[in-house]
Amino acid sequence: MNDPGLDEPAQEAAQDVERNVYEEDQKQAEEEEQSFLDPGRWWFASTACPLIAGTFGPMANSFSICSLVENWRVYIPPGKDEGHGEAVNDPKC
């Protein structure tokens, strides 16, 4: 480009073309990644989450029943560890 004053506009046009092509390629790659990941996410949301909840729900219920039956509080005297703690009974009304 030997014409005076055309270097900057030509350079800007070249950068615009390069930037637009890169943005379109990046957008297409993101769409392909989304379409690849969507079935896995749907499976996790529709299958894995209910299975996990179905597994841990009854276990949590059994823990709540055990907490009503067992004494969970322990007094640990100074200088001793929890293996030598004294059980604290729940207060009765």
TrEMBL record:
Residues 1-36 are annotated as: Disordered. Residues 16-29 have a biased composition (Basic and acidic residues). Residues 1-10 have a biased composition (Acidic residues). This is Uncharacterized protein.
